[in-house]
């Protein structure tokens, strides 16, 4: 039986719905000896910023029950070094490359997108609106967006773009003007209404939303009474967040017409299918890459096997097929 | 670097709470160098979730072993494994100890630096040059791996092994080092064997003693500068808890002895993907770094203006030159 795993995210046609999540796959070369990169639906790069970033001091990671708490702090080479040193390799892979970009203001996001557009070889952009591990909100250090939002939202300081509909719209619409390629807004889970956040991204011109990023979380050493991570809090990922991520994917998919990319603790094909059934047009594999470097390609095969067994010819028959009435 | 499902050949208790696990894998063991490590998935479950990193204790043609301490869920379930069970192993990973020219090619190096006296210096150095291995707790296994290689290249009595532990039952690999013929120097917290106190104390006494010898022999032969002689005469390799490594690093800098340390830091992936295992190091010159970046993908770092940066222990290390690390 011929199986069709193709899916579409904006203008981007993927041969299968399995992508690897930003920050869990380096710049792909690390995985070359351990798997066949060509079998991936697409690769989302480690988040890039205008300038190189040193990252947070250690300890940066701690394991939690069925989860991983990290506070890397967006350590990256910067967008210029990426173009020079990493992009040539990625271009050769012939796999859709989605560049994850982040800035402290809409202008910084735009500068990253602009640099990468000029360099060529990028198939889409994921705007990282939801990193929980970098400091925002200080007027002196960061651009206008945060200063404004912090003043408005006086009671609860906004910790990231994804926490505020206006900030999501501001960044997405700014980036939209600079690229015609697939534009994805990556949303965070620590919000009251994920549906509204997804709608904000859609209204501003995003081609898709990806969710969820990690949860802000903390582990405390009870003896020293100090947080285990130097950054105090980190972002929680792994199988422990999966059921929440499935619910949020379902919620977001009900509220927007653009595709949703499901992310959160996907370890195997069964997990991936939950997201697809809940309404995700594609999924991203994150923490599993650290445990089994070839988890993503095994998931591609596993989805195919499931479809054969269930006599499903086209992935479209699975996407959003949840029987919830 | 390969990932294989390896069969367990043996999983034996060697000290209270400590086990030696031996697994079959030609691909992993034949390329494993002292100081490198393997990531072992202790349980195919979500809790414990991540694989655990272990330095090699031995690596033969077709099998390797690691020595581990049961400290939590991961090592706890590893201790339950029996002969014939299978484990996912990724390795060998990281960069091991370097065996530089100053260690084994003294003659040639001295020739480069001071022609005429090469022969004399070489023979003196040969007589007195030594390697110092300093280990504490589960930092000891990679040093035993290194010692196995060293005895093939130099006289075992010139290998000085300093072991520190809480009590005598935890002086890991003591017998094995003795079998190799190495000189043992022991310290225990409770004084149940060797000197009472920290291993760094007896290390400093030893280095001090050696330097006195160097100075006196130098007075007799003023043909070469002391710095060269010192550099050639001793090198320290250390692995153990961070406070111990910091103390050893200070000793090595005080007496100008080259020193390599293998660090232990929390780690997730083990191959440079998560960049979680950061360690603060001195920032190299911009040019050096650029070259390294071109050669090695893992040095993904930077702020070129900064005086420090975060090196990634799994791919740049776990072995570092002690002088490069900025200890807390």
Tag the structure with descriptive keywords.
heterodimer, A: 325 residues, TIM Barrel, 8-stranded parallel beta barrel, 31% helix, B: 328 residues, alpha/beta, Elongation Factor Tu (Ef-tu), domain 3, Rossmann fold, 3 domains, 6-stranded antiparallel beta barrel, 12 helices, 15 strands, globular
Structure description:
- The complex is a heterodimer of chains A (325) and B (328).
- Chain A has 325 residues and is α/β, with parallel strands linked by helices.
- Chain A is built from 9 helices and 16 strands.
- In chain A, the strands form 4 sheets. Chain A has an 8-stranded parallel β-barrel, surrounded by 6 helices.
- The longest helix of chain A is centred in the last third of the chain and has 15 residues, at 295-309.
- Chain B folds into 3 domains: 2-93, Translation factors (Elongation Factor Tu (Ef-tu), domain 3, Beta Barrel); 101-262, Rossmann fold (3-Layer(aba) Sandwich), CATH 3.40.50; 278-324, no CATH class.
- In chain B, strands 10-9-8-7-11-12-15 form a 7-stranded mixed sheet, sandwiched between helices. In chain B, strands 1-2-5-4-3-6 form a 6-stranded antiparallel beta barrel.
- Chain B starts with a strand and ends in a 7-residue tail after the last strand.
- The chains are: A alpha/beta (325), B alpha/beta (328).
- At the A-B interface, strand 5, strand 6 and helix 8 of A face strand 13 of B.
